[in-house]
Amino acid sequence: MTSPMTPGIAADRLSDEALAQNFVDLHAPLEPHEVRVAADRCYFCHDAPCVTACPTDIDIPLFIRQISTGTSEAAAKTIFDMNILGGMCARVCPTEELCEQACVREVSEGKPVEIGRLQRHATDTLMAQNIHPFNRAALTGKKVAVVGAGPAGLSCAHRLAMQGTDVKIYDARPKAGGLNEYGIAAYKSTNDFAAKEVDWLLSIGGITIENNKALGEDLTLDGLSAGFDAVFLSVGLGGVNALGIAGDDDDSVSDAVGFIETLRQSSDLASLPIGRNVVVIGGGMTAVDTAVQSKLLGAEQVTIAYRRGREAMSASRYEQDLAASQGVKLLFNVQPKKVEVEGTSAVLEVEYTATKDGKLTGTGETLRIAADQVFAAIGQTLATDGGLTLDGRKIAVTGTGRTSREGVWAGGDCASGGDDLTVTAVAEGRDAAMDIHATLMGGAN
User: What's the whole-model pTM score?
Assistant: First the structure.
């Protein structure tokens, strides 16, 4: 994160009380009477479009019916059958673009059933009782290595453990959880939920985690393949793309991923330095989370600068509107040109863009924006591929995560195909686990 000595950047912009209020849970849990009202709105469709829209294929009408009949624990089991990280997904999944957008109520009335909040109610109810809904099958005698303790890796490990296989997870960071622990906005996952969810998941047994072990540094695919019956890679995208403009090496410029990680791991938000004028470059969820949290930390002017039009932003319209509601300015069709720092003032110069013949080009017209702090949120790259075949910037996979190397699967953000979403990663880890199990048991080619 940017040094607090950089001109225009300071800590303690807001009081502890103000920060606590700013970072409250974005979607508070439903009250008991709200649960009943929300569940009663479901039509329990036979061929429910919400199920088709869910990357993990949760039987949404069934779990809502179970909630409506007072059996929330059974509803949670229905969710966890398909998505073992259903608690976190209820908090961070873009339901407004997936299940809720497909809801018949949304189509007919413009107000969908609150599927995400109902899912949170069910999963929170069961997890609060420290109940794990699954038991392990008879032990297979097989051992699988999972590299990366993010959503895909945890999902894969849990499903394998259910099938009776022992799993060892290696993770490069001090804590398990991946982006759920380090990369989600603090107001979306409060009260150390990510860590608690990991502990709950591990309670099935048969899974051990070794932290501070990274592929390419501490681990090799050759070594893992020799010591385990199969390997699943869920290493994420550890590299960060640089801006590549004049002045991007100044202390006022840093990566948004590092900013979010620092914020998520901080026990004292008031100590985090933030600029008065902040500019975030990018158009995805990382850009939005960075911009909103900058505002919540006390930045006065926060701007998201994106090189294309609004419709091209990968962040959903809901997230764009959330940013705007917090006072973040969204500036479209501009690309960064240079950062200039003179004394105690800093400026980001951007150039307006246009699309000509299908190609994005600069128009020559520029704009200078006060920016004593600039965050780059322009995508990440694969830090290590283990010598596997790539598809663009990701590990090439076929079917349910099979890589170019026999006995090695991959899923989550590091693998080709699919959206870079927590819920998609969970599905990929789950499905890869079933393919690994079938292969090890001699039932797959």
Answer: 0.95
